[in-house]
Specification:
By secondary structure, this protein is mainly α. The protein has helices at 7-28, 30-54, 59-66, 70-82.
Length: 86
């Protein structure tokens, strides 16, 4: 092998890629994907109801009101606005 090539790092990289591939295939399973989509639709409905009830689109208000993380609240508000649902 050439100098500077670390076979241990190469093997670890390969193991990491195989692990990621397995994770992606699990998400690609139609049943798992359907469950995720249903869960996301429920969260989106909660956000829409919250905004209608309170009039607030502030991620901090949403996070506190529904028990979401701020980043999750921001993601959902942005997604729903982008889709024209808010």
């Amino acid at each position: 092998m050439d100098e500077g090539v670390d076979p241990t790092e190469m093997c670890q990289g390969l193991v990491d890629k195989v692990a990621r591939s397995r994770q992606l295939s699990a998400v690609a399973d139609p049943e798992v994907l359907a469950l995720f989509e249903n869960w996301l639709e429920e969260l989106e409905s909660e956000v829409i109801d919250f905004v209608r009830r309170t009039g607030s689109r502030n991620p901090v208000d949403l996070a506190e009101g529904l028990g979401f993380s701020r980043s999750g609240a921001n993601f959902l508000i942005t997604k729903l606005q982008r889709e024209g649902r808010l």
